[in-house]
Amino acid sequence: MVSQISCSYAPNKANTLSKTFQQVEDEYFGVFYGAGNASGILGYETVKVGGIVVPRQIIGVGYKSTNRGDGYNSGLLGLAFPGITSAHPGTVVDNTTFLTDRIPYDPLAFHMAKSGLIKPFFSLAIERTLFTTATGPGGYFGLGEVVPGPRSNQWARAPVVPLSQISAATAQNKTAYWALDVNNVTWGPGSALSKAPTSVKVEMRPKLQSNSTTFNTILNNGNSATYLPREISEAINAQFSPPAIQTSGSFPS
Among 203, 251, 187, which residue's Cα sits nearest to residue 223? Predict the structure, then answer.
């Protein structure tokens, strides 16, 4: 246990509840992230994002976390489905049930859409901050609109599906993440991908390889790495000279 200031969650911002915050009784906030977990209380709050005001939005206020902050940010905005919101019954925090014992509610984007405040979609264009810079613009986030910036005129559509691993773990077959089925992965030198006409079949393009084994995956804007099945990731890593290898203590296999 370390002091609040040592946790580095936006240390220059106020850490008291606002006058419009109303705590939800007999429920608590608890969530597992890829790098740890957090817990605290739940409450109704007036939330404002990009000029859009949402009264009585349920939010989680974290009091404990296994992760330290970066000195700038103080929280996360979840964009997935109500099925994986982080409200749990009771007043005693039990982190063994964070994945299963949930009380679903409408996250911010869903609440906005149901209230007629935005069209029922959001868009992202993420800009990588330089490694030599502590903060940066980060890109664009559009609620009910397509963000500005260069993009292709070709659009693709894929159905959102239940994530098989989560469904098996929770015994629930429902949409939770922005998950989809990937039917084919193609890789090879960038020049081969960019110069070959799309009308040319993959197997006929020079130096390109393909794997058509279908797998379930998540579109996750908060993840700094791309996870692929071992067979595919090892084949892609072998394209480098020398071949890329996983180092001890890095991302799990």
Answer: 251
Contacts of 61 (CB under 8 A, 6+ apart): 17, 21, 29, 40, 41, 42, 43
Here the tokens at position 205 are 């393009």
What is the three-class DSSP state of 15? coil
pLDDT in tens, 190-238: 665 555 555 545 455 567 889 999 998 888 876 667 888 989 999 999 9
pTM listed for this prediction: 0.79
Three-state DSSP class for residue 54: strand
First to last CA, the chain: 30
Complete DSSP assignment for 89-157: ESSS--TTSTTTS------HHHHHHHTTSS-S-EEEEE-PPPTT-S----EEEEESSPPPS---S----
What secondary structure does DSSP assign to 66-107, as a single string? SS---SS-------S-GGG--EEESSS--TTSTTTS------
What is the CA 99 to chain-centroid distance, rounded?
Answer: 16
pLDDT digits 0-9 by tens, 108-121:
999 999 999 999 99
Whole-number Å distance between alpha carbons of 215 and 163: 10
Strand partners, 128: none
- Average pLDDT, stretch 90-110? 89
